[in-house]
Specification:
- The protein is of the alpha+beta class.
- The protein folds into two domains: 1-115, L-fuculose-1-phosphate Aldolase; 146-266, 3-Layer(aba) Sandwich (L-fuculose-1-phosphate Aldolase).
- It has helices at residues 8-23, 39-42, 86-89, 118-131, 145-150, 158-168, 172-175, 191-201, 221-243, 253-263, and strands at residues 32-37, 54-57, 69-73, 90-95, 101-107, 138-142, 180-183, 206-209, 213-218.
- Helix 6 packs across helix 9.
- It is elongated.
- The termini are far apart.
Length: 272
């Protein structure tokens, strides 16, 4: 009998949360991850599912996700502890057939519910599924230090932020040609921030929450981690350049056009 703890998706969540903790992005219970699972992913492990799963109601309409499975981090759970006790800190949940809540099929063995940012995650999943024809399966949120720092000094404008991050590292245009979405500060854990994030996810795989953190979307845990890691590295370079007195030279618009041509990407309009 296969054990769910050895499944690729539980092991993937252990690695992702530990990597993010080691990066310093997820202090205490800061940050959350959700990974959409397919029927074939969970089928070998259903014998370990709770025969009488707890139901948790949600306030937003999730009809577009009815019956879908997700593995998610738990509310109030510390990322540094996932590697120690994944069955306590993670959950496999299934959205109910009415799209009004979810069942805890596995995990959270000591009680609790899925991440408090589930509204933002699931609304973003709906958008990214449509945007990528189902390819994107991961939503990742963390408190990436230098990206947050930049929201205090740069204008909260998508084009300004995108250009700054692209200029700080050559690979950024290639990794996120769709740029960075920006949200003003909003109360976390509420439906409003979920819907507003999802609206930005229509155009961007990376969305910054001013003074709070970042949301990333991608097809795999590795790809989504890499997306945030690349943007955060660029933000770190920007912070250091500012501390050294600012840019004396930089990548030019013509350079960017050549880069986009070389790698076959289409930069979001209005930045170059």
């Amino acid at each position: 009998m296969q054990k769910i703890l050895s499944s690729w998706f539980v092991q993937g969540m252990i690695k992702a949360t530990n990597d993010m903790w080691l990066k310093g992005w997820d202090e205490r219970n800061g940050g959350n991850i959700s990974l959409r699972l397919l029927e074939e992913d969970v089928a070998p492990y259903k014998q370990e599912f709770d025969p009488n799963p707890r139901h948790v109601a949600l306030t937003q309409d999730l009809a577009a996700l009815k019956g879908q499975y997700f593995i998610v981090t738990g509310s109030g759970k510390f990322f540094r502890n996932v590697i120690l006790d994944p069955a306590d800190t993670l959950a496999v949940v299934r959205v109910d057939e009415q799209g009004k809540g979810y069942y805890v099929e596995w995990g959270l063995v000591n009680g609790g519910v899925a991440t408090s940012e589930l509204a933002a995650h699931l609304q973003s999943h709906i958008v990214r599924m449509a945007k990528t024809n189902g390819k994107d399966r991961v939503i990742m949120h963390c408190h990436a230090t230098h990206l947050i720092a930049l929201t205090y000094v740069l204008p909260l404008d998508s084009k300004v932020f995108t250009r700054e991050l692209w200029e700080m590292s050559t690979e950024c245009l290639v990794v996120f040609p769709d740029g960075v979405g920006i949200l003003p500060w909003l109360v976390p854990g509420k439906d409003e921030i979920g819907y507003t994030t999802a609206e930005q996810m229509k155009d961007h795989s990376l969305v910054l929450w001013a003074f709070h953190g970042v949301f990333g979307a991608g097809p795999t845990l590795d790809e989504t981690f890499g997306l945030i890691d690349t943007a955060e590295k660029s933000a770190e370079i920007s912070v250091k350049v500012m501390s050294m007195g600012g840019k004396k030279q930089t990548i030019t618009t013509e350079n960017f056009k050549l880069l986009a041509e070389r790698f076959g990407v289409t930069p979001i309009e209005g930045v170059l």
